[in-house]
Specification:
Chain lengths: 296, 186, 185
């Protein structure tokens, strides 16, 4: 049974992630007063990428994407998906925090191998942005782990089940708000779209990918979207008892991200870091102090 | 409108200072100065000191029948001209007549065989791209210009392409139409 | 549009995938590019047919050449075209790439683009309306269906001729030949 879930959960994550990509394009189109592509448009595109003839830029170019994909898949194995968790070890949260770094690192490695200046700019922006949102994110995670007195994601979820969400238990409200503020940055949506910025640095790190490599990167993007949203639902919105409710919660979070995405223009990277280090960090820090002083 | 007060003043001043220039004011009040090649820079700096501090563009005309090439400097001003250089660049106040905001043409003629004139960069720094363009398209040499390198064109032309004796039709026939179509059958 | 016919997907999945994800390169030459913004935004919404602009030639498989091509632009056009992954489709947009258009006697504008890179289809007009782009896309679908959009294959086959033509106009090219063996053969 457990082996079955080990195989199935990345596939479910991929399906959900691709659905999210298609849905987000559709929703953005409706916001723009357009019809938009069909929901399965990402599938068509990935299929097209895999049937095209890609050009490689060295061994690391391919290996970096594999590293990034592997990192994302391992993270997915540790994330509870509405009661299903393939690898519910006690060190869950720490593994997730550690492994989440692999995905951007792999893309940075392989994008840097292509030696495209746009890719280098994109990578440096990605690292700057990660520097920006990792600090509040770590404070939030620290507050949540301290509050529930555990580092296991499964335990956090089951502890939150009693109160339905972290927002409902008083000391964690501030952490939840701070997480909401940095969520677009973690998902790479506008106003924090500095990394890919197609009009500005022609897709940034993925500028040099073609054919199958681009297909893998798109899959990786789908997995990253899934991870970002499901981590939010798990950490501060109490997860869910069954996968269906979990999926609905993820949809709501995605809709929130898309509305922010549609409403805001793109910030410059230093503006983004200034924002991320000011309000979300401040709120998360106050939240952490509250959690520590008030206790459970 | 003929002979607006400001232009009349300027015309008098120019006529008294320079001997080798001709000035005339057209029906709509625009002042045109014909200067020799040697006095262009002096006239330009004098006009700049008078408040005509904005070089709109440098243009070029090929008078093929007179065997001359004419460089045209178009000057205008953002600030009240009458107040002179001491006005500290104050923009027009509300209600002031817009009539002051006119442009001056400064023209100079060069021989067509080897046209060459001193660069105006030291007076107006924004003359640089215009002069580069004229050098490229009309083959006028600007002495003292720091980089007269190609700006727009990708190829070499025997005759600069904007000169009147450049036969574009013949050129297209020789260069672009001589490229053979792809032979799909072979 | 046969995007929803499952049998076609089973019969020729590759063709269908290429048909319904035509990503056009952001490459703006000449005046025709002013027709692209209304095409991809709310008024005409090309995205419902899967046509979206791609920021780099590596992501794209459709090359719209929107207007006159000067000699300097031709260099960039060739480089961009050679960077696109195969299969790739080229469409000349407006009358200038077809025969020079109003720039037929210009000293700096090439007259027939298909002497330098292979073109799969033309949109005539000066300027063609955005609707013409949709007509071109549907024609391109038909061509892909019938295996007639084979510009990239022709480029490979007659590369020596194309390269010779490019060098005749541009002089020495600063990049190595794309297909080494065909050039020698």
């Amino acid at each position: 049974m457990r082996i079955l879930w080990l195989v199935l959960s990345p596939l479910i994550a991929l399906a959900v992630g691709l659905f999210f990509l298609g849905l987000s394009r559709r929703v953005m189109a409706r916001i723009h007063w357009r019809y938009g592509p069909p929901l399965y448009q990402p599938l068509i595109e990935i299929f097209r990428y895999f049937t095209q003839k890609g050009s490689s830029h060295g061994v690391l170019f391919g290996l970096g994407i594999v590293l990034s994909l592997a990192g994302s898949i391992v993270v997915i194995l540790f994330l509870p998906f509405g009661g299903i968790c393939s690898m519910s070890g006690s060190g869950g949260m720490l593994v997730v925090l550690y492994m989440m770094l692999l995905a951007p690192l792999g893309i940075a490695l392989s994008g840097g191998e292509a030696a495209n200046p746009n890719a280098s700019i994109g990578i440096s922006r990605k690292l700057m942005l990660a520097l920006g949102y990792e600090l509040p994110f770590l404070l939030i995670v620290l507050a949540i782990m301290t509050h529930y007195d555990t580092i296991s994601l499964v335990d956090i979820v089951s502890a939150q089940r009693e109160t339905a969400s972290a927002f409902a238990s008083f000391p964690l409200v501030l952490s939840g708000i701070a997480y909401l503020l940095i969520l677009p940055a973690m998902l790479g949506m506008r106003p924090f779209e500095v990394v890919h910025a197609p009009q500005e640095i022609s897709s940034g790190p993925i500028a040099e990918y073609s054919g199958p490599y681009l297909g893998l990167v798109t899959i990786q993007h789908a997995l990253t979207t899934f991870i970002g949203i499901s981590l939010f639902v798990n950490l501060v919105w109490g997860g869910a008892g069954n996968p269906f409710v979990f999926f609905l919660k993820m949809l709501v979070v995605l809709a929130f991200g898309l509305f922010v995405n549609a409403a805001f223009p793109r910030l410059r990277v230093e503006q983004a870091v200034r924002y991320l280090w000011r309000w979300p960090t401040l709120i998360a820090f106050v939240g952490l102090i509250l959690v520590v002083t008030l206790g459970r | 409108m003929n002979d607006s007060p400001m232009n009349g003043q300027l015309k008098k001043k120019l006529d008294s200072v320079f001997r080798d220039i001709e000035t005339d004011v057209s029906d709509d009040g625009r002042l045109t100065i014909h200067a020799t090649k040697e006095s262009v820079l002096t006239v330009l700096s004098l006009l700049k000191d008078e408040g005509w501090s904005f070089l709109q563009l440098v243009s070029c005309v090929d008078w093929i029948k007179q065997d001359e090439i004419e460089i045209v400097y178009v000057l205008s001003s953002y600030v009240g001209v009458e107040d002179g250089p001491d006005a500290k660049g104050e923009p027009y106040a509300k209600g002031e007549p817009d009539a002051k905001r006119e442009s001056i043409l400064l023209k100079t003629r060069l021989p067509r065989s080897e046209p060459s004139v001193l660069t105006a960069i030291h007076v107006f720094a924004n003359a640089e791209p215009y002069e580069r363009e004229i050098h490229e398209l009309f083959g006028v040499h600007f002495e003292g210009h720091p980089r007269l390198t190609p700006l727009f064109l990708d190829r070499e032309y025997k005759i600069p392409p904007f000169r009147k004796d450049f036969d574009t039709e013949q050129y297209v026939k020789d260069v672009f139409d001589s490229v053979p179509p792809i032979d799909e059958e072979s | 549009m046969d995007r929803n016919q499952l049998t076609k997907w089973f019969k020729a999945p590759t063709k269908m995938a290429h048909k319904y994800s035509l990503h056009a390169v952001y490459f703006c030459t000449g005046c025709g590019v002013i027709e692209i913004p209304p095409t991809i935004t709310a008024r005409w919404d090309a995205e419902r047919f899967g046509v979206i602009p791609a920021a780099t030639p590596r992501h794209a498989n459709l090359f719209l050449i929107t207007g006159y091509v000067s000699v300097k632009t031709l260099r960039a056009v060739i480089r961009t075209y050679e960077q696109m992954p195969e299969p790739k489709f080229t469409v000349g947009f407006g009358s200038c790439p077809i025969n020079g258009g109003m720039y037929w006697d210009s000293y700096n504008t090439i007259n027939q683009l298909d002497k330098y890179i292979p073109i799969d289809g033309w949109i005539a007009g000066c300027m063609p309306r955005p609707e013409a782009i949709f007509v071109a896309v549907t024609h391109l679908w038909t061509l892909i269906d019938k295996d007639m959009a084979d510009g990239y294959k022709r480029y490979r086959k007659h590369y020596a001729q194309y390269r010779a033509n490019q060098e005749q106009v541009l002089g020495e090219l600063e990049w190595p030949p794309l297909f080494q063996s065909e050039r020698e053969g």
